[in-house]
Design a protein that fits this description.
Blueprint: E1 3-8, H1 12-16, H2 18-24, H3 26-32, H4 42-52, E2 56-60, H5 67-83, E3 88-92, H6 99-111, E4 116-120, H7 129-134, H8 136-145, E5 149-151, H9 169-178, E6 184-186, H10 200-205, E7 209-212, H11 216-219, H12 224-232, E8 237-238, H13 248-257, H14 262-278
Parallel strand pairs: 1-2, 2-3, 3-4, 4-5, 5-6, 6-7, 7-8
Helix pairs in contact: 2-3, 5-6
Length: 285
């Protein structure tokens, strides 16, 4: 089974009114003001999954700055999953700046069939210690209920690109240590955090941290696959495409060309994520 743990789809209202939503949300504008940045719906995702043999995908929204935008997007994700119940897994958006609303939205979403939270991202500002503190009740609840969190992370050096956040890696590490039993998927190879797992004390604190491959062809050499496997273990690597950013085909080819044995590729492409998510007892494969 192949599972893409990191995709994005958008409601028709957003797709048809890109410029309007760009004016309403600075973070959204930073990525999608360029008309070449793709906005797709669930039908596009399902067609791509069928084309490339992907069995299931995690569908994520966008980290909007207003509750009503988040609710609109979360509703679309849940509705999409109800149309394709055996293909889609919902991760909903919460607002770190509004913990009261986030708590209520999390309860509603989980009752309606959501399986996780994400992709949470801070595109036009840094995530702060206060953000982590304000979300403590929500993240503690997620930790107790085994609800996974997908976090956008990126390296703070190298070339610039739309959506490159400014949050330093130590802030993500602070969140990880604050909720040691919370399953956290760090998007985009964790922005380099896997390499710090060579430090014994860091590795000890990262027991429930995983890394997805989203945007890997744009960020790293294919060598990252065997190197990350050597450092963190193949079981902590999840296949994610950041669809529709990059075709799944590019990931398949890079993984094969990297020299990873078939057994390891199969773990990355689906087994690892399925084992993590099944611990909640809600999703079965």
């Amino acid at each position: 089974m192949i599972i893409d743990c990191h995709t994005h789809i958008f409601p028709e209202e957003v797709r048809k009114n890109r410029e309007v939503f760009c004016k309403r949300d600075e973070g959204f504008s930073s990525i999608y003001k360029n008309s070449k940045a793709k906005l797709v719906g669930v039908e596009d995702l399902i067609a791509s999954m069928d084309e490339w043999g992907i069995d299931r995908s995690v569908i994520c929204g966008f980290p909007w700055n207003q509750p009503d935008h988040c609710s609109l997007h979360n509703h679309y994700l849940l509705e999409s999953a109800s149309r394709f119940p055996n293909r889609l897994i919902v991760f909903v958006i919460l607002l770190f700046s509004n913990p009261e609303w986030s708590g209520e939205e999390l309860d509603r979403a989980m009752k309606d069939g959501a399986s996780g939270v994400g992709e949470i991202a801070f595109y036009h500002k840094e995530m702060t210690s206060q953000d982590i503190h304000s979300m403590e009740p929500i993240l503690s609840k997620m930790e107790k209920q085994r609800i996974p969190l997908l976090l956008h992370t990126n390296e703070t050096i190298g070339h610039s690109y739309p959506g490159k956040g400014r949050t330093p890696l130590e802030r993500f590490y602070e969140l990880i240590l604050s909720f040691p039993n919370l399953s956290i998927i760090l998007g985009h190879w964790g922005g380099g955090l896997p390499f710090y797992e060579l430090m014994p004390e860091v590795r000890k604190g990262m027991t429930h941290v995983y890394y997805d491959t989203a945007a890997s062809p744009f960020l790293y050499s294919k060598k990252i696959y065997p190197i990350a496997r050597e450092i963190v273990g193949v079981e902590k690597i999840f296949f994610g495409t950041d669809f529709p950013l990059i075709s799944p085909q590019r990931y398949f080819k890079e993984m094969e060309d990297s020299g990873l044995p078939r057994e390891d590729r199969e773990k990355i492409l689906g087994l690892n994520f399925s084992r993590m998510i099944e611990k909640r007892g809600q999703v079965t494969f």
